Amino acid sequence: MSDDGPSIDTPRLLLRRPRIADFDRFAELSAHGDAARYIGGPVVREAAWRRFLQQPGAWMLQGFGMFSVVDKASGRWIGQMGPWRPEGWPGNEIGYAFHPDAWGHGYAVESATAAIDWSFETLGWDDIIHCIDPGNLASQRVAQRLGSTLLRPGRLPPPFEDARVDIWGQTRAQWRARVAPRG
Fold first, then answer.
1. Residue 113 lies in a domain
2. Does the residue 57 lie in any domain?
3. In sequence order, which residues have a C-beta less than 8 Å from that of residue 4 and are 6 or more positions away?
4. Which of the chain's ends, N or C, has fewer CB atoms near its CB within 10 Å?
5. Could you tell me the pLDDT band of residue 133, with boundaries at 50, 70 and 90?
6. Span 102-113, mean pLDDT?
7. 146 near 109, Cβ under 8 Å?
8. Cβ of 24: how many Cβ atoms within 10 Å?
9. Quick count: other Cβ atoms within 10 Å of Cβ 38?
10. pLDDT (mean) for 104-129
11. Separation CA 97–CA 53 (nearest Å)
12. Does residue 122 fall inside a structural domain?
């Protein structure tokens, strides 16, 4: 594929479409008990491969998907962040998952800010959500730092219909009002 698609630069990060070179770190995240607990894991490498292919497929068919998040200083893949809307999903999600060695550095908020801006500007979305397991306090804190609030309990489509999720989110107007002083 010659077109690398859109990319977004932040002060410390590069958000770009997934590449095959990202898979080893994605597989590590997917196998890690704590890191994968709230995203349907942990799973073995072969299952991680099938999950990994979802984002390039979303980019190819929908024109958007989660970005790979790369630390500019090291060139390392540290996670995925961005727009996600599979069939039957409860809304326009800005989803995220990060390798455990990237936790605690503010990468989620930095990359989410860029991905939310991109989704509102490029995709024309009027609102965004985050589907968060009620026990995932770290993801709830990220959502709060982004200005999202708890909207309602939610349901995901099969095969995740038995998973409890809370729907956090905000509208484009709420986002714009919150970030207006930045710029």
1. yes
2. yes
3. 16, 17
4. C
5. very high
6. 98
7. yes
8. 11
9. 18
10. 98
11. 15
12. yes
Residues in the chain, overall count:
183
% of the chain beyond a pLDDT of 70: 96
Q: Is the alpha carbon torsion for 68, 139, 120, 93 positive or negative?
A: positive
Helices (H), 39-171: 45-52, 54-62, 107-118, 137-145
Q: Kindly give the interhelix angle for 107-118 and 137-145, rounded to the nearest 10 degrees.
A: 50
- The pLDDT, as a whole number, for residue 182 is 47
181: confidence class by pLDDT, cuts 50, 70, 90: low
Q: Residue 151 belongs to what domain range? A: 7-182
Q: How many domains does the chain fold into?
A: 1
**Residue 167 lies inside a defined structural domain of this protein:** yes
Cis bond before residue 159 (omega within 30° of 0): yes
